[in-house]
Specification:
This protein has 232 residues and is of the alpha/beta class. It contains six helices and ten strands. Strand 8, helix 4 and strand 9 form a beta-alpha-beta unit. Helix 2 packs parallel to helix 5.
Length: 232
Amino acid sequence: MRIGIIAAEFEEMNAIKNIMENISEEKLYNLTFYIGNIHNRECVLVECGVGKVNAARTTQVMLDKFKIDCVINVGSAGSITTELNIKDIVIGKELIQYDFDITQVGNYEKGEICDVGKYFYSDEKLIKLCEKTIEDMKDRDFNIKIGRIGSADMFFADPKRAIKIREEFGMECLEMEGAAIGQVCFLDNIPFLVIRGISDTPNGNNKIDFHTYLKDASKRVAQILDNLILKI
């Protein structure tokens, strides 16, 4: 089993690197891949950069080069529900690119991608292992929720718009890469999972909150991943 781990930003990637052992590096197309072990499971870690294009491009490079068995996307996200606060965790059961809109050219729903679909679903076996991980972490002081995550090439800060997006798509949180990684994995028939730590909420102070809590959210995601990989 070789696990691919993709993070958008340095802090998100570095939190995972800190729990890896026996690390070597390989550079390819201006990307640095860290090959090592977490609990004796072989892992390949990379920082892809922000946004869906960076995420998709890096995912395909990783799959082509390293013969990955499953992909786990880790990082931060902004909550759009009162049930999730900063430093909580969302595990994406389904992912959607909510900025994708071809409704004007055919009988499509918002977020639906022609010949592909509207949602990308995380691997059922990995979700079940996440459920077991949640059970094993009963003494935690933060919330972990399995739900829908939205991806778009935009940073979300408007509280009123957040309510509208929540009503339209039923998402728990928003980020900028997960559904693109999900789409590549779907097309390549590779199991995937998305784990996100809440770093901000749409309250007008997102920029401040994001930079303040990004490192903490990343460390918490690493904690979840560390427990999860024990079960893979």
